[in-house]
Amino acid sequence: MRILVTFALEAEFAPWRKLRDFHRRTWGRAEVCAAQISGAEIGVVLTGIGPRQAALAVSRVLAAEQDSLKFCVSSGVAGALRPEYKIGQVLAAASVSGSPAKRVLESSAPLISFAAELGATPVGRFLTAEHVIVRAEEKHYLGREADAVDMESFEILRKCAECGIPAAAIRAVSDTAEQELPLDMDRILDRHGQHSLPRVMGQVVLHPRSLPGLVNFGQRSRRAAGSVTRFLDRYLAFVAERARNLEGQVSLAAAYE
């Protein structure tokens, strides 16, 4: 049984890498970090930030692995769009919408139900944005349609839907609806959707007062990454066990037909 999990950045994946014995493997045309959890092979792909990067990264896996994948989880951190969600809170979205077309894709209902059973907060919708949402004013506006915002989940669920693979978006809150980001984060990304240290330093030089906020944002992001790591480790073990039991029951029923 193979399960695909995606993160945008290494920093989001780092706590889980420390927790489990991950090794580099090749799935399809992509390099993944793989580990065994409750008899399932978990493959982690780092997509980079942004819808385009996410679509390309997941496509490289699905090109050859769609028949072997049981399901996929789009994970990592997200920005809250409503005031009731707090730093580190794990949200499981019933649906994900894309921007600007406003198309909506549904997460796998059983996967969301299992997440809620293990303590995640079920929410109605994540919004996948094409740029980093920096200002609280924009968050409040977008909060009329969605609970939280990320930049990858819609494309990941879209690619999985095209291949008939169940998928869900499960993320932890890294900034609340009231918190503004310290910089225009789009300006510190390279062409692969990764944080560029030279670009970060350049923005800090231009905006020196942003440094305390940037440090605080990093602390919040690490807290969120740790929260979603602890949840995913329990969640994937739980779901893998459920899937294995279900397959066993189906095989037993077939033997008596």
Structure report:
- Residues 248-257 have low confidence and may be disordered.
- This protein has a 5-stranded mixed barrel with strand order 6-10-9-7-11.
- It is of the alpha/beta class.
- The chain contains 7 helices and 11 strands.
- A hairpin with a 2-residue loop joins strand 2 and strand 3.
- It has a single domain (2-255), classed as 3-Layer(aba) Sandwich (Rossmann fold), CATH 3.40.50.1580.
- Helix 1 packs across helix 7 (211-255) and helix 2 runs parallel beside helix 5.
Write the layout of secondary structure elements.
Elements: E1 2-7, H1 10-19, E2 23-27, E3 30-37, E4 40-46, H2 51-65, E5 69-74, E6 77-80, E7 90-98, E8 104-106, H3 109-117, E9 121-128, H4 136-142, E10 148-150, H5 153-162, E11 167-175, H6 197-206, H7 211-255
Parallel strand pairs: 1-4, 1-5, 5-11, 6-11, 7-9, 9-10
Antiparallel strand pairs: 2-3, 3-4, 6-10, 7-8, 7-11
Helix pairs in contact: 1-7, 2-5
Task: Write a brief caption for the model.
The protein has seven helices and eleven strands. The relative contact order is 0.19. Helix 1 packs across helix 7 (211-255) and helix 2 runs parallel beside helix 5.
